[in-house]
Design brief:
The protein is mostly helical. It has a domain of 129 residues: Intergrase catalytic core (hpI Integrase, Chain A, Orthogonal Bundle), CATH 1.10.443. The chain is built from 8 helices and 5 strands. Strands 1-2-3 form a 3-stranded antiparallel sheet. The chain is elongated and about 75 Å long. The C terminus is likely disordered.
Length: 218
């Protein structure tokens, strides 16, 4: 089917949802409750996504947070909301429409209900089975949050910022999400050795200063 066909719309929806898990670490249950009006493209440096139903700590109830649309999420949501989402056929005016809709209409008012978590999980599983068959059954929404944390840490973002993005209350939780590759361990080891060598030997003499002050003079 071409652009605007059912297969395209469902595939695009599932791709954008999975991108939010991979790029900014949203939980799947946070994703299904997003509304079109929760996306603020002109706020902040790259747009902000208002997560109204974040997971609370130790059963404290939903916790809201604001998620910056980093790592290309701003462009992705601009495309989704501006060019694709309206093709599902419901009214987006007012921002109350769900961001990731099901294809079925609700009884009340004829609007689209949100795609459920099972539907989005199945969409990811189909994509993984097609494009990454070696990861079939293993690459699910939650490991994508781990990938997000590890990727951002590898790019230089500190644990406190990553924890705020993912909606963690404690940095210790965030630390369990970060998986440090061997290459990064080796890089830090080389950096530590270079610093130690510099402290023991001192800075190298500037070029052309060897022997300065030795010998004659006027």
């Amino acid at each position: 089917p071409g652009v605007g066909g059912r297969a395209f719309l469902v595939g695009a929806r599932d791709y954008v949802a999975a991108s939010l898990w991979r790029r900014v670490g949203l939980r799947i249950n946070e994703t299904v409750q997003l509304r079109v009006g929760d996306w603020y493209p002109r706020a902040g440096a790259c747009g902000l996504l208002h997560v109204r139903c974040g997971k609370g700590a130790r059963g404290s109830g939903p916790r809201q947070r604001v998620v910056p649309a980093i790592d290309g999420v701003d462009r992705l949501l601009a495309w989704w909301v501006g060019q694709v989402r309206g093709q599902f056929g419901d009214d987006l005016a007012g921002g109350g429409a769900v961001l990731f809709p099901s294809r079925c209409r609700t009884v009340e008012g004829g609007g689209l209900r949100p795609a459920c978590a099972v539907t989005l999980r199945q969409g990811l599983a189909r994509a993984v089975g097609c494009w990454l068959p070696g990861w079939a059954g293993r690459l699910t929404p939650h490991p994508l949050r781990h990938f997000c944390a590890s990727h951002l840490y590898g790019q230089g973002m500190d644990l406190e910022a990553i924890g705020a993005l993912l909606g963690h209350t404690w940095i210790s939780t965030t630390a369990r999400y970060v998986h440090v590759p061997a290459e990064r361990v080796e890089w830090h080891w080389r950096q530590a050795n270079a610093r130690l060598t510099g402290r023991l030997l001192g800075p190298a003499p500037a070029a052309g200063t060897a022997g300065a002050g030795v010998g004659g003079g006027c």
